[in-house]
Each structure stands twice: as structure tokens, then as C-alpha cells.
Amino acid sequence: MPHAESVLAQLRARLTATTRVAVLSGAGISAASGVPTFRGGPDSLWEQERPQDLATPEAFHRDPDKVWRWYDWRRGLVAACRPNPGHAALVSLEALTADVTILTQNVDGLHQRAGSRRVIEYHGSLWTVRCTACGREARDERVPLPLPPRCGACGGLLRPGVVWFGEPIDPQVRREAADAAAGCDVFLVVGTSGVVHPAAGLAGIAKQAGARVAEFNLEPGGLGGWVDDFVPGGAETTLPQLLSAR
Ligand code: APR
Q1: What span, in angstroms and rounded, lies between the C-alpha atoms of 61 and 57?
Q2: What is the CATH number of domain 36-80+124-162?
Q3: How far is the CA of 34 from the centre of ligand 1 (A)?
Q4: How far apart are CA 107 and CA 109, in angstroms?
């Protein structure tokens, strides 16, 4: 039996009704849905723009209209995408073992649209907006948005409800994610380059707490020493194979 198949069979054997599973997902799990990755090939989100020109508080302060045009474009792109079999396999995992927590770095909302019940959005969401004046946060799924969007309560300028480079992760989100990583028996790392912290460090928390760590990626990401098993290939294929492995 080829190595990857035996890894999947052994991993599948670990996934029983009593297994607590946490999944750290990145842009790679949404790639097959048509959502470009950040650091990937020619279709990556950043190829058309430079990250520091868009996803930072300074960029928003300097040119909110430009930042909003990019986010509105991303919202429109994601709204036209659908969850793929990788997202669906993680939903099926919940039928296998009740305790599945998705810790996603993605802001596209595709895990929830696929039906995952417990999703922690570590970097916020494209579908949330927050008022820069009164702080009010709301879900807003309008596509396109009237730009620049204004707060319904106070008329203040809204910002995307995502975590920008240089901004801290919400303390409660960070705590809940760390607890899920520390409390799991199996930690799946799916479609992330593992270069952005503190999200990437969740794999280390899981490993140090005794979990089995398995990475699903086209190529090994930056989590090297924390990974026990590497499953090469597209998550849209390998995650369904995990569920059906025998
Ligand atoms: N299946 C599995 N993995 C894939 C697939 C696929 N079909 N396609 C691409 N990948 C992998 C790539 O090999 C890469 O390791 O997905 C990863 C995507 O890496 P990034 O583009 O860096 O995305 P991500 O890891 O989610 O970035 C983390 O950086 O820009 C910030 O806030 C942003 O949340 C993001 C964070």
C-alpha cells in the first residue's frame, strides 16, 4: 500500500466517535472553490496588488476607498464560489466524531456554508463590518456594497471585519482556538503555508499537548517539526479520501 494511503488509513483509524479533532485551515482548502490563495501561483490574490497597500490599518487610513474596492471585489468573488468536497469532507467528519472544531484563517465563510457547525474565524470574516466611529459590528452580505459603507447607527465609516497585518487576534478567539488545539487528539492542518503567526502556532500547541498532527497540502508548509503525517495533494481530493479510507 503506497505511503500516503497507509497514512490515510492509519489516520482514519484514529477518527472514532470519541476522537476530538481540531482543523487549522488556510487558503488552500478554498482554492478548489475558485478563491485565490495569497502566496500561491499567478492567480493569487496578491499578484494584482501588494499586501501592504491593502490589508493594513495604515493603508485603510491612507486610502479607505482603495481598500474597500479590493475587499468589495473579494466579497463579490467569494459570493460566486461554492464550498468544495474538501469543505464537505470536514462536515462529514462531524458524523464520525462529534467533537470537530474548525480553526480557519480564511475569511470567506465557506466552512459555514458547507455546514460545519463549530468554526472559529481566526482572522475575522469578509462578511462582517465594524464601525470605525462607534465600534458597532454587524454582518453585511450586500454585494456589491455602497462604497464607502457607512454605519447604520451613527453614520461612521465602516471597515472590513478582518484582522489586518499588524493587528492583534481577538483575545477570546485566540483563547478558544488555543483551547481547541490543546484539547484535541487529532489536529489536521489543511491548505496553509504556515508562515503567519499566531495562527500557525496552533499546530505547536496541539503537538505539545499530545495530538497527532497531519498536514494536507500540495507541498509541506512551514510547520515542519510539528507534523507527524504529511498527505500530499489537493484537499478537495485528499480529505474525502481520508473519510473513505479503510
Ligand atoms: N489543497 C491543499 N493545499 C493547497 C491547495 C489545495 N488544493 N492549493 C494550495 N494549497 C496550499 C499551498 O501549497 C499553500 O501552502 O495552500 C497554502 C496557501 O498558503 P497561503 O496562500 O499563504 O494562505 P494561508 O496559509 O491561508 O495564509 C495565511 O496569511 O495573508 C495572510 O491573513 C492571510 O489568512 C491568511 C494568512
Answers
A1: 6
A2: 3.30.1600.10
A3: 13
A4: 6
Per-residue pLDDT of the chain (246 residues; tens, 9 = 90+): 567 788 999 999 999 888 999 999 999 999 999 998 888 666 676 656 776 678 999 999 999 999 999 999 999 999 999 999 999 999 999 999 989 999 999 999 999 999 999 999 999 999 999 999 999 999 999 999 999 999 999 999 999 999 999 999 999 999 999 999 999 999 999 999 999 999 999 999 999 999 999 999 999 988 989 999 999 999 999 999 999 987
Confirm or reject: Cβ of 241 under 6 Å from ligand 1.
no
SS (H, E, C) 7-28: HHHHHHHHCCCCCEEEEEECHH
CB distance 96 to ligand 1 below 6 Å = no
Question: What does the domain layout of the chain look like in residue ranges?
Answer: 4-34+83-123+169-244, 36-80+124-162
- Which atom of ligand 1 approaches the CA of 86 most closely? 1
User: What DSSP character marks residue 105?
Assistant: -
One-letter amino acid of 161: G
120 touches 93 (CB < 8 A): no
Judge contact between 104 and 122, C-beta under 8 A.
yes
Q: Is 123 a catalytic residue?
A: yes
What is the domain class of 4-34+83-123+169-244 according to CATH? alpha beta
Q: Answer yes or no: is the C-beta of 234 below 6 A from any ligand 1 atom.
A: yes
Query: 74 phi and psi, to 5 degrees?
Result: -65, -40
- Three-state secondary structure call for residue 127: strand
Query: Which protein residue's CA is at the shortest distance from atom 34 of ligand 1?
Result: 105
From edge to edge, which strands make up the β-sheet containing 137-139? 137-139, 124-131, 158-162
